[in-house]
Amino acid sequence: MKKQEIDKQLAQQEKAPAGSLYGTIITALEEEPMVPTSHTLTDGVLHKLSLRKEQSKRRYWLFVLLITTSFVVVGFGSLVIFMGWESFREIKDLSIYGILIGLMVVLIQYLDDKLLKRDLKFS
Amino acid sequence: MDDKEMVSRVAGGDELAYRQFIKQYERLVMHIIIRIIDDPNDREEVVQDVFVRAIDKIGSFGFQSKLSTWVATIAYRHALNVAKKNKKWNEMQDLDQVAFKEGALVPGFEQEDINRFVHKAIDQLPLPYRSILTMYHLDGFSYPEIVEMTKMPEGTVKNYLFRARKKLKELLEPFVEKEVLLG
User: Fold this and answer.
1) CB spacing of A52 vs B30 below 8 angstroms
2) Which member of B43, B56, B114 has the closest CB to residue A28?
3) Is the pTM above the cut of 0.90?
4) Does the ipTM surpass 0.90?
5) Chain A residue nearest residue B114, CA to CA
6) Does residue B94 come out as left (phi exceeding 0), alpha (psi in the -120 to 50 range) or beta?
């Protein structure tokens, strides 16, 4: 259908008298349907916003922790490379560090899970 | 509070402004959501998410359009994404192939029943038709505003509007006597 033709047809529908079918339909369309009112909407939105803020804060600290851990590992690795393992004679077994790093990762995951569970409980 | 003040206060994290913003646009968002999200249980969640997104992004609102158009655009696009995810969206659905469940639509002959009948009938139209009817008639958006919200060409918006009204007329015709409408 051409543009002018559609405009003409639309105008005809809109100019239909109130008692006609189109008039009745247009009156009905302008009537608001049953809109369920919610008393919890605002609080729900505010809660979600605070949850998002908390999540982004949590993500930030997790990021900081990961970066710090990486620096510690890289720093220690560099010291070992440049100073030689003999300088760290008192540290007998490298696996101890492996275990410590592993424990740190487990701890981070545990804290993350705990916070996540708390978020789910609130949502 | 005018739109500029509201935007700056919401962007600044003012909780009272949040509440006023939600109160002001709750019905507009709900009008759009109820035409796209069929399941009433999902609607409040979707409305909440629309406001969370709007509040999150309000700092980037540059007043190129009315605030109501901007909020309605977020509501329309978010609801469409949810509908698509739930596989309830069929953009290519042909209006002529829509089969109305007449049994559920038989109206009484009071004016308010006719209104209810029309609203039930709208729910059975394909999604773009429903949304355009609501945006144009209920929320009073202009054609350029609907074009901005839906990203459909103006000709398509007008065509959908014309065909949706025509379909409603065809549906209503067999059930409603002219003299009843006049009375």
Assistant:
1) no
2) B114
3) no
4) no
5) A28
6) beta
